[in-house]
Amino acid sequence: MRTPRILLLTAGLLAALAAHRLAPAQELDPRILEVEQKRIAVVEKVKPAVVAIFARGGQGGGSGVLISDDGYALTNFHVVAPAGPTMKCGLPDGVMYDAVLVGLDKVGDVALIKLLPKKEGDKFPFARMGDSDKVKAGDWSLAMGNPFLLATDFTPTVTFGLVSGTNRYQYPEGRGLLEYTDCIQIDTSINPGNSGGPLFNLDGELIGINGRGSFDKRGRVNSGVGYAISINQIKNFMGHLRAGLDADHASLGARIEERSEDEMGGAMVVTSILEESDAYRRGLRLGDELVSFAGRPMANANHFKNVLGLYPKGWRVPLVFRRENENRESEKREILVRLMGVQRQELGAPTQPPGPRPRPPAKPAEKPKEPESPAAKLYEAKAGFANYYFNKLERDRLLAAFRKHGDFTPLAGDWTIEADGEVKKERASLQFTVKQSQDGDKDRHIVLDFKVGGVGFQLEPLRRQNIDVLRQPRGSGGLPIALYHYWQLLTIGPKGFEGDFSHGGHEPFYPPAADMQADFSKRRVDCEVLRTEHVGVTGKWYFSLKDQMLLGFEIQIDREDDPCEVYLSDYKPVDGRMLPHQIEVRHGNDRYGVFTVKSYTFGNK
Q1: Which of 63, 98, 105, 109 is the catalytic position?
Q2: Residue 202 confidence (pLDDT)
Q3: DSSP conformation letters of 398-434
Q4: Mean pLDDT of all residues in the chain?
Q5: I need a surface site. Which of 149, 187, 468, 585 has the fewest CB within 10 A?
Q6: For residues 316 and 510, is the Cβ–Cβ distance under 8 A?
Q7: 109 assigned to active site
Q8: Is there a catalytic annotation at residue 260?
Q9: Run of H or E including 491
Q10: pTM of the model
Q11: What CA–CA distance (Å, rounded) separates 185 from 212?
Q12: How many Cβ atoms from other residues are within 10 Å of residue 204's Cβ?
């Protein structure tokens, strides 16, 4: 008796399902159709910017995404590494383009490339960058790319899924490279070939670059866990990438560990520190408790690793720590720390075992030599750079914009600066003169006359000097040498620096405030950086991103000591050229002096 009833019930269910399937589409909730159409529209909007990347000769590849109409595109370092400095890129328009490597972030697994238009002046479609700090677990996301190199016409594959988590940390795969910090975890399916491709939100904004996935060991099948590098991290490195740099990530020069592994949210304490680190020179010591770093509260080691990985080497970020005073009272202190590079071995930190390495490919049969790529003319190799050609472009653009405030090259003769002010909180006048002469066909001879607070001395910067002499006057870190380098930059430019003269990417700059206790975040100004070297002394020059005005510079005589920091403000015209009339000098944690310029005197060549 049961069998007929089961058959009748089954038949009824099948009839109901058939009726549902045959129901007209208008019976569906119109809101569902609206969301579906919006998603389709977003895919159509961003699809033209998705790049299929191939090594020249067609061996291997990955994905990328255009971020500007002049052809700049983001991808993964591990995608371009096998390709070399030039590659081929296909767009959904079905056209293959030549491309060249621009900048690298090997630790963060990011690369910037540039596609060459078929005709000069042609514009590329591009994706708009979003704000990855706004991404939340549960948000929808779209991944696009070329998994398994499926799309022979370069039309990207689209997958749709959830953001599974944010602020995830993934250990380096080996030798400190490919460390994923503060990244976005997704269940949106990504597979080999998706690497370097874009992750979008449903507004069509670029929120990340897909890079890692967890795959079934028996095959190359995604297990539902993927990771994308957050676009906000990439923004911090964008100035470095555009400047053709081989960028490095930051380390603090100190190891921070949780006080007790058994306590949830235990205190983060300094357990080792390099004495040559800037953190040590600023006052951080063993046993200090880290409260916040770069504005983020620190609750555990994962938080610290995540935030540290967001920044390039050399950036200065605020750090708040807590220490007990003599009365065993807890005191908070805030310092501004210059970040070191990724040098974990100096701290003796345990290294992660490298992941499984792929077997070396079989030696391919010899092929006819491929003609040189048209993109090769945009590549120039130089140690420390991913592509020095683009560094020169950025450097020269910056100098041209700076000279709009005044061209001093016709005034490369004697200079005198006279100012009134205070040194170590006592009234003092300052006079600085550059005198130069030419002894026949021999090298030029330069003498610096410097007088402050009634005490003066001479210095010949082109002669070998004792470091202690170069640091004079005491407490300034070498103000005469700093002003001499300033004169070199204004009047001679690149030819005045026989060492480095390159674009250093973007960095935050913190002008002094009347109240030196003011929040560092409120004082921050984002700047372009110029790096220089002359007579063994290095310099960093900070130009406002807004108008390329020079806001200040650091001159470092000895890497083991703090630089002489010079802050420039109150610009006024002098003979049609803009010059600062307020100069503040700092060294280490102290202000050496502040001066109001009375006059600039220019000599003849």
Answers
A1: 109
A2: 95
A3: HHHHHGGG---GGG-S-EEEEEEEEETTEEEEEEEEE
A4: 87
A5: 468
A6: yes
A7: yes
A8: no
A9: helix 479-491
A10: 0.88
A11: 9
A12: 20
